[in-house]
Specification:
Blueprint: H1 9-32, H2 38-60, H3 68-92, H4 98-105, H5 108-119, H6 127-144, H7 146-150, H8 154-179, H9 185-208, H10 217-250, H11 252-269, H12 275-292, H13 294-297
Length: 298
């Protein structure tokens, strides 16, 4: 097995910065949803985030995709990696706490590993990965809680929506590996946000109607954070972290995001999560450590 890269200071800075930004995005969703409908908020995020990246593409003279097939792959990527999960996360947060949403979102790594094992021969599911994924899945069940599993209500449905968002992210990861090889990473991010915008803007106009721009300053701040730091800037950090730390170490972000989201949810929104949420997160983290495998090998 190929050893993971050791983490430099620059790699840690990139990973922690990315985790802090994505952790705060759950808070921004919660604030933005006080005034904006779900699809409108998501449309703002992907449209303005993509627009900023287009400016970067032209400024750096990054080559554009040369075939309709590549543009079609980017449209599907925008659907799987942005339109579906952003909408599900936003809707879910209208019924559950932002911190709880971030913990359930940690299941992304589980789905990513399982889907990749099915799709790619070199991503086979080893015994250690299977054990780790099973433990992490138990952690998800603990996080959701026995009551939610026993009595189905809107809160249960919201938590299932978060799981579906994680599943969409897992599909997107395998789709991106299969179809976007050789495409400049910034162009890939720009293209998929463009594809997501082509889906979300008409959908928001059709379902939510004409957008309202008479909003509170907090709402504008949330929109700005989701579109620019949490989307445009985050993609720069993501690919920087990928180059500095490697894909294996990049999974550490999954463990760093929930504590940040829980902190902001508690301090700003006054959220109090049940003990099961923290126990579930600890179990998910244990599963991720086993999947990573370095501690076991040592």
């Amino acid at each position: 097995m190929k050893p993971q890269k050791s983490l430099s200071l620059a790699a840690w800075v990139s990973l922690i910065s990315l985790a802090l930004i994505w952790g705060a995005s759950f808070l921004s969703f919660a604030i933005g949803l006080r005034e904006l409908p779900v699809f409108t908020l998501v449309a703002h995020r992907v449209f303005w985030g993509g627009l900023v990246l287009w400016a970067v593409v032209f400024a750096l003279k990054i080559p554009l995709p040369s075939s309709l097939k590549a543009w079609g792959a980017l449209l599907v990527m925008g659907f799987l990696n942005n339109a579906i999960p952003f909408s599900l996360i936003a809707w879910g947060q209208t019924h559950i706490e932002s911190g709880l949403a971030s913990i359930i979102n940690g299941s992304t790594a589980i789905f990513g590993i399982l889907i990749a094992a099915i799709a790619f021969a070199d991503e086979r599911l080893t015994g250690v990965k299977l054990i780790g994924a099973s433990i992490a899945f138990i952690g998800v069940c603990i996080t959701i809680g026995y009551d939610a599993l026993q009595s189905f209500d809107i809160r249960s449905l919201a938590q299932i929506a978060l799981l579906c968002a994680s599943f969409a992210y897992g599909l997107a990861a395998s789709w991106g590996r299969h179809t976007l090889q050789g495409l400049h990473p910034i162009m890939a991010a720009t293209g998929m946000l463009t594809g997501a915008s082509l889906i979300m803007v008409p959908l928001a106009l059709f379902i939510d109607g004409t957008p309202n721009f008479t909003l509170l300053p907090n709402t504008y701040a949330a929109m700005f954070f989701l579109a620019i730091p949490a989307t445009s800037v985050a993609y720069f950090l993501y690919y920087r972290a990928l180059n500095l730390a490697g894909s294996g170490n990049l999974s550490l972000v999954t463990l760093l995001v929930p504590p940040t989201a829980v902190f902001w949810g508690s301090v700003v929104l006054g959220e109090n999560l049940p003990t099961s949420a923290y126990l579930g997160f600890a179990t998910i983290a244990l599963g991720m450590v086993i999947i990573d495998g370095r501690i076991i090998r040592r």
